[in-house]
Amino acid sequence: MKLADHPTSRLTAFPGLHSARRLQNRVYFGYGNWNEYCAVTLASYDPLTNVLAVEHSVASDSVDMIREIDGTIYVPHIDPSHHEDYHDYSYRGPDGRWLQSAAMELLHVFDFAKSGSLLVCAGNRGLHYSENEGRTWNLLTSAADRQYWCFDYNGTIYSQAGRSINGKFQLFPNLPFYLNHTTPFRDTVANADLVLGLDNKSPGGSGFSNHLLLFDGTAIRQFKSQVRSFTTQGAEVFVLIKDAIQKTSNPAASPAVFSTLDITGIPSTASCLELLDGKFYIGTTKGEIWVANADGTATTVVPPTVENQIPDSYGRGLAFSGDSLLVGAPNALAATFLAGKAELWSRRDKVWQSQREWEPPAPDFSGWFGRDVALHGDLMAVVEAGQDKSNMDRGANAKVHVHQLIDGTWTPQAVFEVAFAQSVAIQGDMMVVGTSNQAANQAAGLPGVIPYSITRDAGHLAVLTPLPQMKASFSSAYGYKSLVRVALMGDLLVVSYSGDPGRGSTGAMEVYRRDGAGFATKFIRNVSVSSLQRYGFGLAAHSGVIAVGAPFEDTEATNSGAVFLYENWVNGEVVRPFVQKQVLRAPVPQAHGEFGAAVAMHDGLLLVGSPGREVNGARQRGAVYKYRRQASGTWVFAGEIVPPSASDTEFGIEVACNDRWLAAGSLGCAAGATGLTSRVRVIPRSGYEEWLDARLITTGRQPTDDADADGLPTLLEYTSNLPPDQPARSDAAMAATEPAGLPALGEADAGGMRPLTFVRPVNDSRILMTVESSSDLVKWTEDPAKLEVVASGTTHELVRIHVSGEPAERWWRVRAAYDAE
Fold first, then answer.
1. d(Cα 327, Cα 344) in Å, to the nearest integer?
2. Are 37 and 393 in contact (CB under 8 A)?
3. Residues 630-668: tens digit of each pLDDT
4. Measured on CA atoms in the order 478, 479, 483, 485, is the torsion positive or negative?
5. Alpha helix locations (H) across 703-773?
6. How far apart are CA 475 and CA 276, in angstroms?
7. pLDDT tens digits for 589-631?
8. d(CA 115, CA 549)
9. 566-604 as b/e, with b when 16 or more CB fall inside 10 Å?
10. Can you give the pTM of this predicted structure?
């Protein structure tokens, strides 16, 4: 009987489901066809709970050779470079988190195997191996042809290029070019260890397999034709042949004898087979999942619950305007799985309040509504980056949705279909959209930017008029579909192109000056082409400075990343083109940290996301760093932003800031997390908040809290320049390079006046400090005497006030108040 439709069943690419694997008491189904470029997901069926779950969204064209090795599930990405993130493979570790890796930077990854301490990967550049669970990879052997498969046989790794024994590669001519879906098998009749596989099936391709193959350590032989899929259980082998299932208990026999099971009703479109707990699970080219009892009895199964377990990526898109924040969640479950949503928040009554949510008007599977967002005054734009009418070319019908605030209500104003739109920016009377390669075959044509002029009619309604696309000035060697980022800065447009790893990971940045209605003139042009990997993946521009992120730059460590800073002035004079002034690298360089994957700037503040950073042994937890621009123009490290409580994966995948606030989002948050601040770190640009972040204080952050339980409120430790994570010192306030210490009352002078000295922050407008006195410790009055500055530091200063020493029984206190607004 038909169990359910796979969530991708309405997609038209062929085949639909072509892989079924029994892993961890579930059946995993792989989808896709690398000959068409459609959205791809990984789904699993759990018979115990009767749940069909969408577990992972893969930025690839196909999911095929699903493997489980030492408790970790590995999913190769076949042709990932069409979908901007360029990850090689996905994996789910024992902690249950789905993560993605681009450690090898391959255009195609096909299969995994393990022997001893070596984890081996087969891909388009040969075989790679890792001795640390995939954290780093090394080349085992290069090959002219793609290595479509690899498997372990008695401690030796085999592929079509040869075999590896203890990490040493040897040619081995007795293996065919195709041997896919390999499975170890113990033939108890022949008393032999074998490997079974299929031939003539390119992973993710559109054809069915022809033969079931057997490898005995010496050679391969075919022993069953017209096989579409197979599985094993115990000493039996089961094969799917059109609409029938056959089995044998001795595949090594010549010839092997098969019997047909008494199972009817198998659809002619059946493409993959698995057996779990006495039931066969069959996937079809139409994305259907069928189930049959292995003993041939009638099957009765309650229709399963179909649910989305993929984090919604809340915070993948971020944009500020004043005290409002627009948040995109491109993987959110709308009316269609992974269609996405956007939500607007505003700061009111000292609390962030949700104003409205938007779902795509015509939800599309994996449409990525909210992949990028822009907010400026009364206009907002939301990019629906994955929209695809044919469901065979993800992003081919991408859209940009523009809304305007009219009489207090956000009203749809325009929808632009922009093929492969990836990013958007709005400033003044201009909107710009960054587009990747618009050619259908992606290898021809060029990416670029489409400007839109914004005019206002008599009723102040915004009218957006598209102007001619400005194509990149370089060749398509920058990739099938390079990642494009845009930023507006006064009359300048900055655009960056981050090339895919299959084309050398090069990148470029171009700067245009506005000419009339648009940006038709490259009055200032700067193209930076280099081997810096993923140069241009992050982009920000503000106050004459451009920041370009290159998250796979590996000067300090493999793919640790860097940020390149450019300015268009030297000694106060404007220069052309922009000149590189500084290169920032992670404060603690870490392999695959991807420092620079996201950047944001505003008025001397720079935020840098490092979503790949490993934290306490947990891979890809992520981090966000802050930098401040000194008077000399040099940017210096100024602390780290603490992740929000629900952050689970790749914190720092997006960052944003303006003159009042800063924000950072994660690729995934804990299931069930709601609200804004549990999923997105949003804090004011206040010295107090930044002081807490620099010291990684995650609890006790409220001004009245006592983070280190030493009897002093956290706010008082900030104003006194004392550490919030150590017991307070009893030192009186004193002058130093940075004044520090608790308030101190000195001896009275001849006139009866006593000096009261204390420390306060420099230029923190949210902190108000006053001196008050009381004769009964109940009623306090502010002392009107004048404060004088005794010593100044960078962050704090020492100040003094002279208070009356009479009467003798009188108390003084220094009161600190904090206004988050």
1. 6
2. yes
3. 888 899 998 899 899 999 999 999 999 998 899 999 999
4. positive
5. 714-719
6. 51
7. 999 999 999 999 998 899 999 999 999 999 999 999 999 898 8
8. 38
9. bbbeeeeeeeeebeebbebbbeebbbbbbbbbbbbbbee
10. 0.88
